[in-house]
Design a protein that fits this description.
Elements lengths: L1 H14 L18 E5 L14 E4 L9 E5 L4 E5 L14 E3 L2 E3 L6 E3 L14 E7 L2 E5 L1
Antiparallel strand pairs: 1-9, 2-3, 3-4, 4-8, 5-6, 6-7, 8-9
């Protein structure tokens, strides 16, 4: 009986995956944070429309902020720091339309995918849960 229970617990522990989610990047520190956005509030109302974004600076999150982007079918949340640069005075992403650009090296990242051609690291992505008009972003 103990062996069956042990095998059952092993199956549960090792059977749980992270859905392939990986946001490891040696240039950007890892932060443990969680915050909610209510898109009914005026300061976040533009997130109700596709291809719009907001940048949020949570107290316990990245110093360069978090970019929350409406893809039309879901939301993406990315670190506001340049993923291929050490933190410096020029390593804060600037947003223009559906692209985030790093002023240090002029690399442009697509906010739908987080990718940039020719760059080693994509944008550092965080988890997002949507429940009606509430968006929870966490790491």
């Amino acid at each position: 009986m103990k062996k069956i229970l042990f095998l059952f617990l092993l199956t549960i522990v090792f059977g749980c995956g992270d859905s392939g989610f990986n946001n490891q990047n040696p240039n950007l520190p890892n932060y443990q944070f969680s915050f909610e956005i209510n898109t009914n509030l005026p300061s976040y109302s533009n997130l109700q429309f596709p291809s719009n974004h907001v940048k949020i600076y949570p107290a316990d999150g990245p110093s360069r902020g978090i970019i929350v982007f409406n893809t039309g079918s879901t939301f993406n949340a990315f670190d506001g720091g340049c993923p291929n640069q050490q933190l410096s005075s020029c390593s804060t992403l600037t947003i223009s339309g559906i692209e985030a650009t790093c002023p240090c090296d002029d690399a442009s990242y697509n906010l739908f995918t987080g990718q940039s051609p020719g760059q080693q690291y994509p944008l550092k992505q965080y988890r997002v849960e949507v429940n009606g008009s509430l968006i929870r972003v966490y790491n």
